[in-house]
Amino acid sequence: MVLDRLRRATPTKDPKKIPDGLWLKCPSCSKTVFKRLVEERLDCCPECNHHFKMPSGRRIANLIDDGTWVEWDANLVSGDPLGFVDGKPYPERIKQQQAKTGLKDAVLCGTGTMGSHPVGLGVMDFEFNGGSMGSVVGEKLTRMIERSTAAKMPAIIVSASGGARMQEGAISLMQMTKTSAALARHAEKGLPYISVLTNPTMAGVMASYASLGDVIIAEPKALIGFTGARVIQETIKQELPEGFQTSEFLFKHGQLDLIINRQDMKAELARIVGYLMAGRR
User: Quick check: 97 and 128 in contact, CB under 8 A?
Assistant: First the structure.
């Protein structure tokens, strides 16, 4: 009885609640890591160096010298050429993605300096509709490449994409040839193009501009390929090598030039650009 009265008389203190959003679970090592440490390492796990997906704006801030970024074609938005509906109208889907990400479409393009070297840069964002390549992505990248050619500076594209955007059908597939033709004209002027592949880089993007770099770089353990492993295996009726669509496998078999950690990417890109452009200015 006395204990009961004491329990009722003594208020119980709730343990301090840990605010949401302070911790992340790494999908690679399964460890729970402090979000601030992940952010300090440029969205990489402090335990295993897993590279989380990185927003395009944050990536640009990491790659381009402070105060030098000038965005191009910021207001281009997709039309609805096919009147496509897949559960919801395509324009409605685009508006939802814009509200979710704060982006107009799945790529940011512009120019700035990288270690004092002027470059044209396009950075894809997987959070916008899976980084899918539609007419806006193709047009913005093509304009970026053409402006880089006119300015006699290198072009760099950072890819993060599931491939072509199905809601735009053949118009999306046309972006493969359009961007590739722009890169061919860029190469005719003797100007370098560097392709950076991040997780994931797949399908029509990998089958076009992502694989055309004079130098092709990937982040560690990125998923890179044309189509899913199951589809390939069912098509060719053969067992596939383990990890055959990873950066490490492709590097081993000569399809990549370098694998570079995100923390070192700016310095390495600046070094490569400086080497390739030596004597041109």
Answer: yes
Q: For 121-130, 136-145, 182-191, 222-231, which range has the lowest pLDDT when averaged over its residues?
A: 222-231
Strand partners, 119: 112
42 pLDDT tier (thresholds 50, 70, 90): confident
Closest CA to 53 of 198, 217, 216, 157: 198
pLDDT digits (tens, 9 = 90+) for 209-226: 999 999 999 999 999 988
What tens digit of pLDDT does each residue of 64-104 get?
Answer: 999 999 999 999 999 898 898 988 999 999 999 999 999 99
42 vs 62: CA distance, rounded Å: 8
Q: What is the torsional sign of CA 196, 201, 206, 208?
A: negative
Count of alpha carbons within 13 angstroms of residue 209, beta-carbon side: 39
Place of tokens 């010298």: 65
Q: pLDDT exceeding 70 applies to what percent of the chain?
A: 90
Two tokens, residue 164 = 């072509």
- Quote the CA–CA distance of 129 and 225 in Å, as a whole number: 19
Q: Which domains does the chain have, with CATH numbers?
A: 17-52 (no CATH), 53-276 (3.90.226.10)
- Residue by residue, DSSP assigns 162-208 as S-B-GGGHHHHHHHHHHHHHHHHHHHHTT--EEEEEEEEEEHHHHTT
Closest CA to 90 of 198, 24, 23, 165: 165
Residue 80 tokens, joined: 């609805």
Distances in whole angstroms, Cα of residue 146 to Cα of each of 69, 178, 189, 218, 270: 18, 11, 11, 24, 21
Q: Which two tokens stand for residue 230?
A: 């199951």
